[in-house]
Amino acid sequence: MARFILVPGGWHGAWAFDAVGSALSVKGHEVQALTLAGLGDQPANGVNLERHIDDALQAVRARDTPAVLVGHSYGGMVITGAADKEPSRIQTIVYADAYVPEDGASVWSLTTAMYRERFVAGAAADGLNCAPPNHLDARCRPHPMATFLQAIRLTGNWRNVRSKVFIAACGWEGTPFVELYERLRSDPEWSTHGLDCAHDIPRLAPEALANILLKCA
Q: How far apart, in whole angstroms, are the C-alpha atoms of residue 139 and residue 100?
């Protein structure tokens, strides 16, 4: 039995992994999908990227069993930060159409101009939280803007995680991840997969994502 910790992308909560989690649980695996601080029913003040990394770290440290740590989109920042602090507790780190940052990077620095414009427009009301785009699920919540802006601090220890996987969603325009996917395809330290769907892999291709994760187990 494997232990999966699932970290959603921006604006989303644990519900984004409902279908994936069910597919993993029915095979007997332990699944914990996270709703990061400020993205549940109650908003949280002063939430930044470091706070979200701490959320993931608490889940990783809760058990001695090594975890398969999965992040979608923005969640790639979170899982990288957590794995950098506890690489020995991570069996596999999986990026589902997600950011793979270097030290000093932020979502703002890594994303495209289209997304920067979306962040600015979304934060117009209070400058603190970025409202979810209209096309997203009604359960989405305003995302703390500081988590998109804060630079991540990494020692590089996350690279010691033995198994690293990148899954690209190849069916949408404007993706900031295609160049990264092409680069990682030629890196022997990475396993890569391409799915013919839009960005929201956990909800648009849950069976395909679950099958890849089951191989990690």
A: 26
Q: Which of 73, 106, 109, 191 is catalytic?
A: 73
Residue 91, helix vs strand vs coil: strand
pLDDT digits (tens, 9 = 90+) for 85-113: 999 999 999 999 999 999 999 999 999 99
Coil/strand/helix, residue 85: helix
CA 196 to CA 202: how far, in whole Å?
13
Q: Is 25 a catalytic residue?
A: no
Beta bridge partners of 168: 194
User: Residues 132-160: pLDDT tens digits?
Assistant: 999 999 999 999 999 999 999 999 999 99
Q: Which helix (H) or strand (E) holds 6?
A: strand 3-7
Q: Which residue has the tokens 């969640």?
A: 75
Q: In the chain, what are the domain boundaries?
A: 3-101+153-216
Long-range contacts: 57-64, Cβ < 8 Å, 24+?
Answer: 57/82, 57/85, 57/86, 59/5, 59/32, 59/34, 60/5, 60/86, 60/89, 60/90, 61/86, 61/89, 63/3
Residue 47 to residue 38: CA distance in whole angstroms: 7
Fold of 3-101+153-216: Rossmann fold (3.40.50)
Q: What is the DSSP string of 17-64?
A: GHHHHHHHHTTT-EEEE---TTSSSS--TT--HHHHHHHHHHHHHT-S
